[in-house]
Structure formats: C-alpha cells, structure tokens
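Structure tokens please, single chain.
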Amino acid sequence: MNPVLRRILTRWAPLWSALGLFAAWELACRAFGIPEYVLPTPSASFAAAWTFREAIWMHAAQTLATTLAGFALAVVFGVVLGVLVGSSRAAYTALNPLLIGFNSVPKVAVVPVLVMWFGIGTVPAVITAFLISFFPIVVNVATGLATLEPELRDVLRSLGATRADILLKVGFPRALPFFFASLKVAVTLAFVGSVMSETVASNLGVGYLMMSASSRFNMALVFAGLLVIAAMGIAMYELFSVVERRSTRWAHRGTEGG
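Here you go.
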C-alpha cells in the first residue's frame, strides 16, 4: 500500500470506526423497531443534543470543571504518594496494603458519606473524581521509580550522586512514560467519578441532566449526555497523548514510523 495512503487511512481510522458504529446503531434500531424510550437512534440523540444545547453546554461546563479539579488533586497527591512508595521500601510496605484496600472500596458507596459531610453540590463530585482517579497515578509513578536498576543506582552513588540526585535526575525522567500513561487513564476515570456523584447528589452537571431526563423518559437526551461525556473524555485523553509524545519522545523513538 502507498505510504501516503496508509498514513491517511491511519489518521482517519477513528473517524471511520465511529461513523461505522453510529451507522450500525441507527440501522439496528430502525430494523428491529426498537422504541426510542428504550434505545434512541444516534440521529435522535444528536437532535436532542442540538435542541437542548444551551442546557447541555451549561451542565457539561460544570462536569468538566469538577472533573479537572478532582483530577488536579489526584495528580498532586498521586505523584507525592507514588514517589514515597516507589523510592522507599519501608513506605511501600506500610502504604501499599492501605492503597489497595482503599481502591477496592466502591466509590459509589462513598458518595452518600461525602454528601453527609459536605452537602449536595460540587464538592462531593470533585472529591469523588479525585478518589477514583488518583490510584492509577500512584501505581504508575511508583512502578516507574521502582524499575530503576540497582546496578545503575550503585554506579551513580560511586560517582558521588546523592539519593536526591538519583531521584530527580534519573528516577523522575525514567518514570515519565509511566506517569503520562497513568494520566490518560486517570482523566477518564475522573469523568466517571464526577458523573457518578452528579447522578446521586448534585443539581448541576451532565450526570444530573441525565437523571432528570431519564425521570421524564427522554432517553434521547440521556444518550446525548453520554455522547457529550464520551467526547470530553476522548478530548482530554488525546490532549495528554499529545503532551506524552512531546515530553517522552525518547521513550517511543523505536516505535515511530512502524
């Protein structure tokens, strides 16, 4: 195949796959006569998104703000804990069981507790987004630091490098691919946390909009909300993918052009 044509097909492959999915969805709904209150067609969902565009814009902005706030907290706390766990055997032994146990708790069960503490609104959504997204960051940063070879540490120490020098000049750069990989996962999980909290305890956000629409059996608007969340998640994922490629080009140079 022509290399130029191959690059064009590769670049536009996500668009063609999305269009194929929507086409199959539309045809299946029409062919099987599925009622709109059960499963609306993509065309009905997009029409609802346009009809309620002002409300969707307002609620989407709220969800995006709470998601990014919770995600920012997750990055800060996740990096700090990841450094502690990845660079200290004692910290790993002490904190790892607690982190695993905490991550095993269903976050939807924590939302009512947050509502009791902070009331209905933005704060529970921000905290839920933080709680559900910080664990991947901790694990990946700790893994990146822990994979530093003992032999390399010994060589650096013999050359006079301190523990801080090794961590800052070698450990952190080595952990960057792990860190950016965790950001792409964590930001999508942050959306899950925000919407989860908004469906339970909020009067703003896409989650609240979807619950309000479902109570009126407006499934087209519900799916419009789902599509908006998916679009925001894809946009944030791609943003961090671009930052990752520019920041860790050295780690992927062997796979470029393949």
